[in-house]
Design a protein that fits this description.
Mean pLDDT: 88
Low-confidence stretches: 268-278
Order of helices and strands: EEEEEEEEEEEEEEEEEEE
Structural class: mainly beta
Helix content: under 10%
Oligomer: single chain
Radius of gyration: 24 Å
Length: about 290
């Protein structure tokens, strides 16, 4: 599911090269004697991923064009009526290098995520958003994991995910409706995010494996600098211990023919009773057939 529409994916691999294309389409066109409208539904997605094995490493490149809120373009048929165009979308790209094929005791991946977020409405050729928040985001990351404990029937892996997000907001003029004052509004953010995590797996017989995962998100450093009407020039420096996410599940595999997985997880802050309120709870299920 992508937003309000379903998404289909078609992929191919020959062992050393893989590719997939994906699409979620929701569009509507309306026309009468007065106006023509084109609507793109929330979740529209067109994406492509390419992956290639290079020796003991794998390099992966992917990208998506995603509509993050419903867009409506209006074209009145009256000569002097203004046209309206809405642009609420993300253009994303990701490049990843991993040592997966050759890894034995040390598993890592490194890469960068790029996002161009557009949130704007144009009327008769002029932007009319009161508070647009279009921005560019670049996030280099490095993830590492290694087996800490291991036996014939169980293993425990420890890891650390790191990211350095950088966000640059588009600059624009905003006007205070009370005082009439106007000023530029902009924002730049740089941070360091650390996510230590642990994964445990236990074999229960020949066909069933029980697994559990836990991760602790910590925004170690966050620095924001910007300008707006209310605060003028401002700077914010903070460090935030964020949420914990935990998952437990099992995998059943019948010989080399088929397998299924079921997992149940929750995100919580200070106490475990949040697991009963339905917020942050998620369930995943997967089935596999081997040829």
């Amino acid at each position: 599911i992508s937003g309000d529409v379903g998404r289909a994916l078609l992929g191919y691999t020959n062992g050393s090269f893989g590719a997939d294309i994906r699409a979620g389409v929701g569009k509507r066109r309306f026309e009468n004697d007065n106006v023509e409208q084109k609507v793109s539904y929330n979740g529209n997605d067109f994406g492509l991923t390419l992956s290639k094995m290079l020796g003991g490493y794998v390099v992966t490149l992917g990208g998506d064009w995603i509509t993050v809120a419903q867009e409506t373009d209006t074209d009145p048929k009256a000569k002097r009526a203004p046209t309206t165009e809405e642009r609420y979308r993300d253009l994303t790209a990701t490049l990843v290098l991993t040592d997966g094929p050759s890894a034995r005791k040390h598993f890592w991946s490194a890469g960068v995520n790029f996002t161009r977020h557009v949130n704007e409405m144009e009327v008769a050729g002029s932007l009319k958003n009161e508070n647009p928040d279009s921005y560019i985001s670049v996030v280099p990351f490095f993830n590492y994991g290694t087996p800490a404990l291991q036996s014939e029937h169980a293993r425990l892996m420890l890891g650390l995910n790191t990211a350095v997000p950088t966000v640059i907001q588009d600059e624009y003029i905003v006007r205070d409706t009370t005082s009439g004052a106007s000023a530029k509004k902009n924002m730049t953010h740089v941070g360091l995010s650390l996510t230590p995590n642990v994964i445990g797996e236990v074999l229960l017989g020949e066909s069933v494996m029980l697994f559990g995962e836990a991760a602790y998100q910590w925004e170690a450093v966050s620095y924001t600098k910007g300008e707006n009407v209310e605060a003028g020039d401002y700077k914010v420096l903070e460090s935030v211990a964020d949420k914990v996410q935990a998952t437990v599940g099992f995998r059943y595999q019948y010989k080399d023919w088929a397998a299924c997985e079921f997992a149940f997880g929750d995100s919580f802050f200070t106490d475990t009773k949040s697991i009963f309120n339905g917020e942050g709870v998620f369930v995943s299920f997967g089935g596999f057939i081997y040829f």
